[in-house]
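Entry for the shared binder. Reason: the reviewer on the internal report wants the predicted structure included alongside the sequence.
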Amino acid sequence: MSVLRSRKYVRLSDAEILRLYKDPPSGEGLHFLQVEIEERNLAAEADTVLKEVRKGARHSLLYYLFYALMFGFFVLRFGKDFI
């Protein structure tokens, strides 16, 4: 079965396809990037790229410690009002 491919993405190299896939595409761009990834057999590389993006999106330990400290201050200040 023939798949409709975008002329824009056909001209790009594999590295450029993966770079575009790393930035969150949407709509038509996402569809044609997925078609190119399937046609070029880049599924493993695309999964690696997505794992890197997800790994970078997590918060650091200091983020969670800060909010735990803020919650502790909240409980100390307003805790006796609720008891």
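Summary line for the report: The two ends are 69 Å apart (CA to CA).
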